[in-house]
């Protein structure tokens, strides 16, 4: 049977129901933050190399060698060793991961009833949470006790609503899951020393029994998951955890991934479908030929309305059932 690819597929019933029942977890990868000017892993690598060369910590030949011969994580691991050996060097994070303070794709994404897990370091979703929080007419914005920073290290212009955004491993607990909450599971710029960047960082976080691994395994085994903005390389770490989750025989997938595809790739799609099928992930392909990677912004806007309509219809149905139950 030939797969039919469209530019804007509709969310399936499982996702709609999960959102309505507060059971949807949206995983956010670098592809989403690229829509507000942040780099992917390759861009991150190149930006760090450029800053190291500008400060004469490496020369052009070393920059080219590291860029051409090492993948992003290996290259960044080497860069971090150079930075550790040069304590006077300060990476200009705002040049690597800029913040778009006006409404953007994250403001739209937060309109979907879900909990948000991100592997991104940038603070764009944090600012979107704050805009949403202020818009809800709360009297006071409290800086979260979870921010592990000295006062003079605070991110200018950004405050946090209490318990809305988490980035420390000690906070990764299923009891904290709730609609609108955000978890930076690989750390964030709010606590740079806790960020997972090097291969050593990832081995320490995933290669042992940890709160992070337990947290993710519980999510993958009990919740409906939607991945968006992920490339093959970025999903490798999460694939390890997913593969360790006990899967019921003949169980239908409860994990989904928005999958950008070009028309020229249609013939190879089945290989991706089979690979992710083994991980219990169902792909939701969307065609990006007309406008490119920015298609995801328009897709999210369309999905917002569909989630709202389904949720509203479900609420009415529940009220009718309750009325029937009590005999009014």
3D structure, described in words:
With 328 residues, this protein is of the alpha/beta class. The chain folds into two domains: 250 residues, no CATH class; 54 residues, no CATH class. Helix content is 43%, strand content 10%. The chain is built from 13 helices and seven strands. Strands 3-4-2-1-5-6-7 form a seven-stranded parallel sheet. 28% of the residues are buried.
Which helices and strands appear, and what pairs or packs with what?
Elements: H1 13-20, E1 24-28, H2 30-33, H3 41-54, H4 60-69, H5 72-84, H6 93-96, H7 105-109, E2 115-118, H8 124-135, E3 165-166, E4 182-184, H9 199-206, H10 211-222, E5 224-228, H11 236-243, E6 255-261, H12 269-278, E7 281-287, H13 295-326
Parallel strand pairs: 1-2, 1-5, 2-4, 3-4, 5-6, 6-7
Helix pairs in contact: 1-13, 3-4, 3-5
List keywords for this structure.
alpha/beta, seven-stranded parallel β-sheet, 2 domains, 13 helices, 328 residues, disordered C terminus
Radius of gyration: 21 Å
Strand segment tally: 7
Strand percentage: 5-15%
Q: Specify the biggest β-sheet.
A: 7 strands, parallel
Shape: globular
What is the H/E string?
A: HEHHHHHHEHEEHHEHEHEH
């Amino acid at each position: 049977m030939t797969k039919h690819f469209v530019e804007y597929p509709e969310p399936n019933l499982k996702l709609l129901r999960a959102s309505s029942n507060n059971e949807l977890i949206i995983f956010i990868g670098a592809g989403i933050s690229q829509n507000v000017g942040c780099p992917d892993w390759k861009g991150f690598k190149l930006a760090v190399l450029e800053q190291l060369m500008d400060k004469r910590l490496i020369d052009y030949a070393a920059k080219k060698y590291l860029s051409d011969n090492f993948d992003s994580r290996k290259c960044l691991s080497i860069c971090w060793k150079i930075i550790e050996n040069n304590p006077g060097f300060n990476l200009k994070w705002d040049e690597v991961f800029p913040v778009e303070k006006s409404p953007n794709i994250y403001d739209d994404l937060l309109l979907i009833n879900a909990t948000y897990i991100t592997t991104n370091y940038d603070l764009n979703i944090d600012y979107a949470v704050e805009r949403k929080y202020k818009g809800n007419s709360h009297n006071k914005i409290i800086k979260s006790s979870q921010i592990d920073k000295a006062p003079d290290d605070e991110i200018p212009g950004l405050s946090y609503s209490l318990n809305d955004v988490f980035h420390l491993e000690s906070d990764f607990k299923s009891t904290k899951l709730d609609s609108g909450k955000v978890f930076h599971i690989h750390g964030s710029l709010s606590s740079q020393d806790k960020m997972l960047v090097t291969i050593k960082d990832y081995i320490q976080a995933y290669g042992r029994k940890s709160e992070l691994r337990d947290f993710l395994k519980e999510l993958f085994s009990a919740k409906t998951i939607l991945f968006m903005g992920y490339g093959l390389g970025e999903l490798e770490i999460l694939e390890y955890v997913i593969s360790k989750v006990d899967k019921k025989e003949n169980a239908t997938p409860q994990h989904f991934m928005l999958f950008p595809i070009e028309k020229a790739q249609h013939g190879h799609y089945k290989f991706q479908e089979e690979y992710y099928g083994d991980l219990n992930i169902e792909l939701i392909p969307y065609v990006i030929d007309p406008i490119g990677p920015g298609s995801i912004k328009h897709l999210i806007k369309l999905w917002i309305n569909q989630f709202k309509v389904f949720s509203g219809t479900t609420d009415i149905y529940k009220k009718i059932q309750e009325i029937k139950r009590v005999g009014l």
